[in-house]
Structures are given as C-alpha cells and as structure tokens.
Queue: 2 jobs
Job 1
Amino acid sequence: DIQMTQSPSSLSASVGDRVTISCQASQDISNYLNWYQQKPGKAPKLLIYDASNLEIGVPSRFSGSGSGRDFTFTISSLQPEDIATYYCQQYDNLVPYTFGQGTKLDIK
Amino acid sequence: QVQLQQWGAGLLKPSETLSLTCAVYGGSFSGYYWSWIRQPPGKGLEWIGEINQSGSTNYSPSLRSRITISIDTSKNQFSLKVSSVTAADTAVYYCASSRGYSSSWYYRFDYWGQGSLVTVSS
C-alpha cells in the first residue's frame, strides 16, 4: 500500500495567517491526490481534488499544489471557521485508497 | 444533489457481526462506486472497501477476510458487514461515493453519509 505522511500533525496559527500543510507519498503518485477538511463530529468534506483543483463552492483561500511524491495544501488567510483537521488522500493504482494521518489546525 | 443516509446497530459484543446500510438519494446511483470508510475515536480515516452497481467489489487488504459489501440497486442502497468484531473495530463508519463518471472516471470521496458510531464492548 502507498503510505501518506502529513506534516505537521498539529498546527496553531492566527487569523489572517498563511497556513501550509505538507503531504508526502511513499512513491510517485503523479497528481492523484485529494484534500479533505473534517470538523469535529462531522463527515470529511472534499476541498481539493487532483492535487490542485478547487471543489465547487470551496473558498478560493484554499489551494493545493505538487506532484510526484510531495504535495502542499495552503490556506492563504486563515479564518476562524477553518479550524478543523485536514487529510490528504491518494488514489494512485486506485485501491486501496489511503489517507494521511491528519493535521489538526487550531487558532493561536 | 446526492445525499447519503446511513443506519445500523451501534453497540455490539465481541465476535458479533457489524451491519450498516447506506441509502443514496438524488443523482445517478449507477454512475458511482460506493465506499465505506471508518475512523476510530480520535484517529484518522481508513478506507474499508467499495462496490459498483454491478456488484463488483474492492476491499482493503487488511480487512478483506472479514468484510462483505453488497448492493441493492432496486433500493439505491449498499451495505457493509464486518464479521467477528473486536474492540479494535470500534469507530465511526462513513459511507461515501469513491468514484464517479462524467465523460471520464474521477476518483474522490465527494459525497458522504452522516457517520455511524459503532462500539464493540462486552
């Protein structure tokens, strides 16, 4: 299985800050990577698909980049409602789909 | 707009069989693959398996021996069974769409159920 490693595992930032989360795959996965946001007690929500495409309805302050093994998720200006845990997920070779361990983001 | 609603028993004893069902409303039921994903308390997400309208399944290698995913296209529903559960199977279980088709296949979990907490305890 392809392993996904996110860093950091937790992060504190101030409103308005630029926030960056990294995700590294154990092998080359091209751009076969998605990003999700999960708020407490809720199902995850798709934010970014195919590494850099913004899902419809998702604010433009969210973005994704990268290819191969290294990927980045960015919030350009952190808002209070962005407090959540963020997960990357790969689908190279299709199944099994695997997720990163998550990055918990809170307000400083 | 596609909506998923799931249900099933929330409290099981060790060695029992977990059973959950997910109903799909709206959209094209046949145009997707349907997955189950779980999340142990305080931990990350683990993909369990998926099924398509033809009943073709893919399972996580780590769970394959205990999992059955089935589909009822007449009701737009799909189901998960996990046999011989232990405390390690305690988790919130989600149903979700895992693949869709729009001129070509795409791969992402874009529709999710509300989640079902399943607790295994003697």
Job 2
Amino acid sequence: DTAVSQTPKYLVTQMGNDKSIKCEQNLGHDTMYWYKQDSKKFLKIMFSYNNKELIINETVPNRFSPKSPDKAHLNLHINSLELGDSAVYFCASSQGYTRGETQYFGPGTRLLVL
Amino acid sequence: SQQGEEDPQALSIQEGENATMNCSYKTSINNLQWYRQNSGRGLVHLILIRSNEREKHSGRLRVTLDTSKKSSSLLITASRAADTASYFCFILTGGGNKLTFGTGTQLKVEL
C-alpha cells in the first residue's frame, strides 16, 4: 500500500490553464506539506497544514491555493499556469511538525507548462 | 546565500570508498535531518540529529553536528552503487514553522 500518493504523476498543460494536483496519505499523520523542486533540484516548502489548518504559507503566488478537506488529503490548485511553474511538486506528511518529525514523501507530480 | 548550503554539489567515488557531504546553516536549529532522493523519486528519510547531539550512527551512515560551526556532515562508509542518489540536509527552525532543505549533493558511486 502506498503511504503517500499523488495524482497525476505527470501533467503537461498550456500556459494560462488551471490545474489541480491531489495528495492522499494513509499513515494517519496530522501534518501535510507541499514542496516544489525546480530544475536545479532545489526543494522549497510551499505550504503546510496540520489537522486541516494552514500553518506554513511561504511566499508563493496567490495563483497557488492549497485545500485540505480532511487531514488525510491536501490538494494543490494552480490558476493561470505560467512557464515558471514547471517543476516537480512533492507532497509529504508527518506525524506532527514541531519536533522535526520524519516526513514521508509522495512520488512527485511532474508539471510541464508549455 | 540560503540556509542549508551543501558541499560538494557533486561527488563521484568508486564502490567501497567513503563519501562525505557537508551542510552549513545560518541560524539556531531544533534539529537537522538527512534525506536521500533517487533519480525521479520522492525523498526518503535517513537520519535525524537533535541540536544537543554531536554524532549519530545508523548502519553505514554517520552524521555529525557542530552547532558552534553551524554545520553537519553525513558520512557513508563502504559505498555501494545503490547509494547513487542526491542527498539533502533538512533544517527545522523557529519552533517548527521554518523548514528548509539544503541545496543537495549528487553522489555517484561507480563500480
């Protein structure tokens, strides 16, 4: 059973479109995250939710809107996609977040904006 | 420069040799973790070292932490081809609401 799953795995779309990426974890964790990894492999935290509440919201364009319907799911909606949004987006989860609990990562969603 | 800079950026060694990668950071930390990323995959947690610890071992991995120098090192002993991956340090600061990954070291272990 996959612990942290993301869909879709690959996403190719045109500039200006709106798209969503879904993430689900079956580990019973309270905290979930979205990270962006660029072409140079730099990983940057975008958002974090704990028990459906937003706890980290880094400097991310407001075209990106996370949504956590329950603590097992954290989805990412992106409006008006731009070329610079092309990257790999990783979802992760952890038991908590205040003590540096181990994070479990999904396989990533490779987004290519044309 | 950003929090969590790693060196070297890339490292190529022969199987059986040891690999050492370093992570430097700027502010006080709660703890520091190391993760591994195989090509095209998600990250996998390797080891965590708390700010009051100086050294930790896990199998062929040895992590050190020097809070006075604000640096950590990850040593992989007797490397194997399967260790080929990117390695990232992960820093937790600010009571848990500041998360930063290092810039990563790409390790290649050749047969």
